[in-house]
Amino acid sequence: MPRLALLLLAARALAGDVTVDNAVPVRFGARFSDEAGQRVAVFNGDKGVQLPLRLAEPAESEVVALVRARSGRKFTLKVQGQGVSLGSEAVGTGDFQEVSLGRAKLPAGLGRLSVSAGGGAGLSLRALRFPSASPESPPLWPLNTAYVDDGKGGAQGWRSLSLRDSGEARIPVSSSRDAEAALAIAYRADKPARLLVDGQPFDLTSPSGSLRARIALRQGTQLVRLRAEGGEVRVDGILLEGARVSDHWPLPNGNAQSVHFGYPVPEGVTAVWAYAEALAEPGPESTYHCVLGFGQGYFGYQVRYQRGRPDDRWFIYSLWDNGYVRNAEKSETKEELRDKVVTLVAKGPEVNASAFDHEGSGGHSHLNFRWKDREPYQFLLGVKPDGSGAVFSAWINGPEIGGWRFLTSFRRPNTKAKLDGLYSFVEDWSGRQGDQERACRYRNLWVADAAGAWHRLVRANTSATAELGRRDFSHRVVGDAVELRTGGYRHAEGKPGASLGIPASGKAPAIDFSNLPAGT
Q1: Alpha-carbon gap, residue 460 to 75, rounded angstroms
Q2: Ramachandran area for residue 157 (φ above 0: left; ψ -120 to 50: alpha; else beta)
Q3: 87 vs 28, 46, 108, 116, 151, CA distance in Å?
Q4: Nearest to 124 by CA among 49, 66, 50, 68
Q5: Which one-letter DSSP state was computed for residue 158?
Q6: Which residue range is the domain that position 110 belongs to?
Q7: Is residue 520 part of a domain?
Q8: Per the confidence metrics, is the pTM higher than 0.85?
Q9: 184 with 202: CB under 8 angstroms?
Q10: Residue 54 lies in a domain
């Protein structure tokens, strides 16, 4: 019998019931609480949770959800996975109720079911019931969100990891409390090797087997590290012994938090120019440092390389359409789109410009450029009226640029010519290296009115995305700048909803607006 199967023999649930004790939330999906000694998953939105499910032999059964929703509230429950796809509409009673989802043929073996709910924000799930089956719900840690060194193995499905010699996996975990966790780890190794579990060495002398390790978990988020030495090791599963997975669960998504500053424009000022300086700290791929975001677009620079191409960097400037429009529709020249679609007015040398229609739609532009870490770059935005619309333009300057370089001008219809809603952010947009820190500093921020008078920005209001379980981010004043930092599972200084004073360092920019370079 496979080692994981032997470990699972001790992980029994009540016949017919799969509680949420060993569930994990999908991204933004749910939070856990205890009510009258029973674990409950409270949905944050539509996505919900995933539950491990194991049957010794195939079975056919009705599937019933034990849920609670506000009295009179309509919702739609769905259960999917292991060949099961069921759904049902219901109306809340204000108390826990049984909602039948239909009948399903359940296969033998180990898998997981996803429970989602349309209109599910605030809905509570206690269990799934299978009146004609006897499922088990093992305390199994999903491993598919582990960070694994490139070229050294990776996730094999949702419960296995392959580690080559000297390869390391870092499993992101969120714990509701400080605790010591007991892990049972099933493994395979082609030759004698060693597996380090949070630094504790275990010699693997047989081709397959299991080991037991105890690790310290602290309240909050952290990384549990597995490292192979002396040969390749396959981890076939990790069971949490003597505890509920929902108390110490792997985070459902690898992205570092997106962290932001918002900059209020001084009262009474209509800004038509915005200026900022930024210095990016060394960091991993798939990082966007937005320097001057505004109500209709954003402007900054990215580390966008994949798999070891650190020269693959660019400056990026985008403007959103006045309403969402797909690229295919834009090419059809529909008259009714004239009041929605952003159009390209001009672009600078070597600048690439195109339409986009993901995460909103609009005009995108970028300049491939080997910008350097910890070097100060200057960002300038300008806007001017154009009939009933406005033309927004972007320029960049820096130590090796030697003067303002024009990127792009886009026209946005039905838009007032002003810059408001100014902001900066640091974003991890792939999630593959969310265990590494990203940071950027912003200083000497100004806006200018139509008369060319500069006004200093003095406050940075803080915010962050609600990435479930993660708190490893910070908003700080560092020297003459304000800093955004995220990722790494170390910093926990983030204070969303606070307001920082921007150091009053640096002089107002001296810019001859009439002689700024323009493109074609």
Answers
A1: 40
A2: left
A3: 21, 13, 22, 9, 41
A4: 68
A5: T
A6: 9-129
A7: no
A8: no
A9: no
A10: yes
